[in-house]
Specification:
The protein is an alpha/beta fold. It contains twelve helices and eleven strands. The strands form three sheets. Strands 3, 4, 5, 6, 9, 10 and 11 form a seven-stranded mixed β-sheet that branches. The chain has a two-stranded antiparallel ribbon with strand order 1-2. The relative contact order is 0.14.
Length: 297
């Protein structure tokens, strides 16, 4: 089935004459405009524009398609505006991407206070950057920078990846071994413990192990749970180890329900960024979400 956004993009390219101008009107990236247009051309089975330099010149079939859809598309857009005014009072909708755990401990408690609609998306960071570039997302909270011409990053915080243990684990034994500064003994002790991990994701553990032992871990966690917050809750009731970002467990460390075991000889730190498109119509809404994160630092 054809995506109506393809028709909207086609109409905008037709009227503005270039992909760049269309991207500015639609507040999406130029690659996003190209993707919509090529998808529509694949759907209808013929070229809609001849590309002459930077100018997009409609083909004869492109002109026919434009004349055929313009009246219906204009009516749909007018209906959309009227519906928005009558039922949602022009309330904008902001789409935000981040990891599940970040959402739970930061934005979740403030969602009901925001004066606009919010759609939260979880996923892998490179895919979220692609969605941001295409206009599907408006803001990403990410520890990774994927450089794109249309996207800008603003560093706002940092996290340290730390080794934590359950409240019943014998951290005094580890401290005694760690004081000897024998890296082989430290590694052996750690491998003898029970470990927690999350489904399909060992990135924190791999990076932590590589940085401190100059190798990747040759074991898998004993217990695989849905997410990092689940790990914190599981550790709070017994023994075991896990490698997690420190901001997820500061409260639990402070109240003694879990223990900070080791930051490593070479602490593993990540910088956290706000990622947005350079041109967006939601600057005020994005600024309010940024403010929430900055006040939680």
């Amino acid at each position: 089935m054809v995506n109506l956004e393809w028709y909207r993009t086609f109409k905008t390219v037709y009227k503005t004459g270039t992909l760049t101008n269309a991207a500015e009107v639609l507040f999406i990236s130029q690659p996003g405009v190209s993707l919509h247009l090529s998808s529509l051309e694949n759907y209808v089975g013929y070229k809609l524009f001849d590309r002459t330099g930077r100018k997009m010149v409609p083909t004869e079939k492109g002109k026919v398609l434009y004349n055929f859809i313009i009246e219906a598309l204009t009516k749909l857009e007018e209906a959309e505006k009227n519906f928005q005014r009558s039922t949602e009072k022009n309330t904008p909708t902001i789409s935000v991407g981040m990891c599940f755990e970040t959402f739970q401990i930061t934005l979740e408690q403030y969602i009901s206070t925001l004066p606009f609609n919010v759609i939260i998306q979880f996923g892998e960071y490179p895919e979220m950057v692609e969605s941001l570039e295409k206009g599907i997302l408006d803001l990403i909270i990410t520890p990774q920078m994927v450089i794109k011409n249309t996207i800008e990053y603003q560093a706002f915080s940092s996290e340290t990846i730390v080794l934590v243990g359950g409240s019943e684990i014998d951290d005094l034994e580890f401290n005694s071994i760690e004081k000897n500064e024998n890296i082989e003994e430290i590694e052996l002790w750690l491998k003898q413990q029970k470990w927690y991990g999350t489904t399909g994701d060992m990135e924190h553990l791999r990076r932590f192990w590589q940085l401190n032992f100059n190798k990747y871990p040759d074991f898998r966690p004993n217990y695989i749970v849905p997410n990092l917050n689940s790990i914190i809750r599981c550790l709070s009731s017994g023994k075991g180890l896990a490698v997690v970002p420190d901001f997820l467990c500061r409260k639990e460390i402070d109240n003694g329900s879990i223990k900070l075991i080791w930051e490593g000889n070479n602490p593993l730190k990540n910088t956290l960024y706000f990622a947005t498109r350079k041109k967006t119509m939601y600057q005020d809404e994005i600024a309010l979400i940024k403010k929430i994160f900055l006040e939680l630092k």
